[in-house]
Amino acid sequence: MTSDDTHARTVDLLEPNSYFGMKASQVKLLKQEKVACLDDNDARLTLDPPNKYKIQ
């Protein structure tokens, strides 16, 4: 799975490396939507330090 932040870099890694021995048809990249980050094992949401009401 990739995101908007990592999709292009992932493709740029896979293509010049010939998909690391796999056929391109064997590799499926799924781009996921952005979601809030969890800060710890208690599933607390990561907050933006300058604004404690903004979720990262």
Which terms would index this structure?
56 residues, alpha+beta, 2 strands, elongated, UDP-sugar_pyrophosphorylase
Counted beta strands: 2
Q: What characterizes the major β-sheet?
A: 2 strands, antiparallel
Which class do the helix and strand fractions yield? alpha+beta
* Number of distinct helices: 1
* Poorly predicted parts: none
Cα-to-Cα separation, first versus last residue: 20 Å
The percent range for helix content is: 10-25%
Question: In percent terms, what proportion of residues is strand?
Answer: 5-15%
What is the overall shape?
elongated
- If strands are numbered along the chain, what order do they take across the biggest sheet? 1-2
What is the CA-atom radius of gyration, in angstroms?
16 Å
What average pLDDT do the residues reach?
90
Tally of structural domains? 1
GO biological process, one term: UDP-N-acetylglucosamine biosynthetic process
GO molecular function, one term: UDP-N-acetylglucosamine diphosphorylase activity
